[in-house]
Amino acid sequence: MSKPEPKPWIAQIHAYVPGTSTSAGGKRLVKLSANENPLGSSPAALAALAERHVAADYPDPDARALRQAIAEVHGLDPALIVCGTGSGELLHCAVQALAGPGDEVLMSRYSFSLYPLLARKVGATPVFAAPEGYGASVDNLLAAVSERTKVVLLDNPNNPVGSFLPPAEVARLHAGLPPDVLLVVDEAYGEYVDPAFQSAAFQLAAAHENVLVSRTFSKAYGLASERIGWVTGPAHLVDLVNRLRGAFNVSASGQKAALAALSDQAFVAASRAHNTRERARLAEAIAMLGNHGISACPSEANFLLVHFAGAVTAEQALAALADAGYAVRHLPSQGLPCALRITIGTTAAVSDVIATLRRLCGEAA
Ligand SMILES: *Cc1c(COP(=O)(O)O)cnc(C)c1O
Question: Which of 231, 248, 264 finishes a domain?
Fold first, then answer.
């Protein structure tokens, strides 16, 4: 009465909770909590960022050069690409375009923590399909579709699990959806998967009227700070996202950095190779701690979801890793109180994580 009151669905929303970078005591930690690239950014991108530009001028509102370059790298039509302030902005636009109060936005039980917020922001209800293991189950997603379902959000690979649905499973999910339900395939970690699988979702989106695919420069491209993502799909969906996105939503420095980063595919390949090697090393070390109740979900992304079911608890591991100088992601708010999501860091960081977990198990044994 005496002050502005938010819409009821807005009142339920909390702000997005990012990965931490300090310990409980305020000590600065190396972040293994936000899935950033431990190799940093491409030198070409850093050089582009160091170039002078006219900060007083608005950027290209349509990111034309960047969209052209993305199209060339992926064999896409630049007219069917929209760039955003991170892919998060574009996911929001897609949900906003198709869902509102009374509607449902469907996702797997363990998905990107932003997804339920996106549903609630537009007044829709997030609906969680039961997982298989911890990853997405096509059968359970399809069984959870109702008349109210407007959008299905699939992060593939998934965050926080790291699980990956192969192209045939994504196609089966799509084939089982009513044609008026939008399937968004969020490939934030797409560059980390087997290159043989990397264009399947683009082909699905090109062949149907109800599929959007999102990508980002925040992960393998190492440009999270610049906030650049993009989506592609059929013209009518791309047009909706384009109408809803912010004007001038990608900064001039972001456009330049992304353009330069695209030209340095060797950096992306090196990032993938580092990740594949170090993820396998961490997974192998964790498998050896199985008799201490510690296990990791198979991952195709740049992190591992590590479960603590024995004498060593997730809280103890979180504290010990902080003592060793590392911030990892504890996920009780996502229904995973006994798990930590650990980003694959530098070789030294992975060695430190392994040593810390081994020491904890030695102490607990
Ligand atoms: C990190 C991440 C993104 C990327 O968000 P940006 O806004 O592009 O930085 C998108 N989806 C998932 C599942 C992620 O984990």
Answer: 264
Tens digit of each residue's pLDDT (9 = 90 or more) over 146-176:
999 999 999 999 999 999 999 999 999 999 9
Nearby residues of 355 by Cβ (< 8 Å), 6 or more positions away: 324
Q: Is 266 exposed, middle or buried (0-12, 13-18, 19+ CB in 10 A)?
A: exposed
Residue 200 Cα to ligand 1 midpoint, Å, equals 19
Return the number of other C-beta atoms located less than 10 Å from residue 192's C-beta.
26
The ligand 1 atom nearest the CA atom of 229: 8
Residues 109-139 have pLDDT tens digits of: 999 999 999 999 999 999 999 999 999 999 9
Mutating to test ligand 1, I would choose from 219, 225, 241, 245 the residue with most ligand atoms within 8 A of its C-beta, which is 219
Atom of ligand 1 nearest to the CA of 87: 8
Count: domains in the chain: 2
Confidence of residue 1 (pLDDT cuts 50, 70, 90): low
How much is the CA Rg of the chain, to the nearest whole Å? Answer: 21
Kindly report the protein residue whose alpha carbon is nearest to atom 1 of ligand 1: 188
243 is in which domain, residue-wise?
A: 43-264
Give ∠ CA 13-189-214 in degrees, rounded to 5: 65
Ligand 1 mutation pick, 37, 82, 87, max ligand atoms within 8 A of CB: 87
The string of pLDDT tens digits covering residues 191-238 is: 999 999 999 999 999 999 999 999 999 999 999 999 999 999 999 999
